[in-house]
Amino acid sequence: MSDELDRVPREPIADPGLPAHQYRPTDVYPEQERRAERQVAGMFGLASLLAVAFCVFYFAVDKDQTFLGWSALNFSLGATLGLSLLLIGIGAIQWAKKLMGDHEIIEMRHPAPSSEDDRAQVLEELNAGIDESGFGRRPLIRNSLLGAVGALGLPAIVLLRDLGPLPYGQAETVWKKGMRVVNDVSGTPIKPADLEVGGLVNAQPAILFETDEDGEKVLEGTAALQAKAKAAVIIVRMRPEDITPRKGRENWGIDGILCFSKICTHVGCPISLWEQQTHHLLCPCHQSTFDLGEGGKAIFGPARKPLPQLPLAVDSEGYIVAVSDFQEVIGASYPELARDQKRLDNKS
Q1: Which of 51, 135, 279, 321 counts the most CB atoms within 10 A of its CB?
Q2: What is the DSSP secondary-structure string of 297-329?
Q3: At what angle do helices 30-60 and 139-151 cross, to 10 degrees?
Q4: How far apart (Å, rounded) are the C-alpha atoms in residues 179 and 310?
């Protein structure tokens, strides 16, 4: 049976063609077209406002504030940026479905590579598609889209602030005059008699362990972590005759007891590797070495700026306290700061 069917001549199937084109309401009614145009432009405009709201919430919402058990900051940033992107996407889809060209197109298959005529035809069709999209004829949509996409650059610029500390303005910490120096783990105040020659103690400002009248810590959560990161110190005791203080810092210690920032001035690693005999402090990250007998001077490795020193005194009860805050920027160095420090060292 199959052999007989194979011998029967076959006619090619006729081209069924395309169904009649169905016009959209926006193709027929001008008021529908204008309404769709306003809707798309409204979505793009609202996306711009949400991008601006992202920047406002970034600075206005407290990091420790909560909303329905979530971080209010993360919720507001995620909601505004997500909705902004969503509205741009929905607006683009509505633009394509209701306003751009809606004609059926037939593309004939051809061998590769394309001929010059085919390439020219493709370019012609692309240009025709651009014309049919109305990008040039619809300034309201075009300008609102460009505004929405441009506004998305604002959150990107704001988020660049989180990539690292600013070169200036990081000198201030929670240390202040009269604040006690306490043990980093126990929070116990430290007296000079508690330190032996050659010893090192990791310490913090007392405010990190203080509580208010209700028994709540004065600093908690993110604020406490940020304060601890910048205010961490080490206290060492050397023989007074082994110390050569920097000019103007002759009275910053107490009988051989000196206090320095625990944060390396190269890239901000915590350091406490102490060589008692040489009075050198080593950073475990990149082997920067500081001579604490020479005022924290950087003597080896990539660090160029000395360790910031905290001036010390003894209060009426015999405990070690800070005389003031640090007078130098805490943490990683910047070229500008290194040059400024070098000029100060040359003057001294």
Answers
A1: 51
A2: EEEESS--SPPPB--EEE-TTS-EEESS--SS-
A3: 20
A4: 12
As a whole number of angstroms, the distance between CA 87 and CA 144 comes to: 12
Walk along the chain (348 residues) and give the pLDDT tens digit of each residue: 556 655 666 677 777 777 888 888 888 899 999 999 999 999 999 999 999 999 999 999 887 888 888 888 889 999 999 999 999 999 999 999 998 888 777 776 656 677 788 888 888 888 888 777 777 778 888 888 888 888 888 888 887 777 665 554 456 788 899 999 999 888 899 999 999 999 999 999 988 888 777 777 777 788 888 888 888 999 999 999 999 998 889 999 999 999 999 999 888 889 989 998 899 999 999 899 999 999 999 999 988 889 999 999 999 999 999 999 988 888 776 554 545 555 555 555
What whole-number distance in Å separates Cα of residue 75 and Cα of residue 338? 40
For residue 90, count other CB atoms closer than 10 A to its CB.
Answer: 15
Tally of CB atoms within 10 A around 208: 20
Kindly list the distances between the CA atom of residue 37 and the CA atoms of 47, 96, 97, 132, 323, in Å, as whole numbers in the listed order.
16, 11, 11, 14, 67
Count of helix runs (H) and strand runs (E) in the chain: 9, 12
280-282 vs 289-291, strand pairing mode: antiparallel
pTM over 0.90: no
Tokens of 260: 């320095």
CA–CA separation, 29 vs 17, rounded Å? Answer: 28
Q: What tokens were used for 188?
A: 């116990």
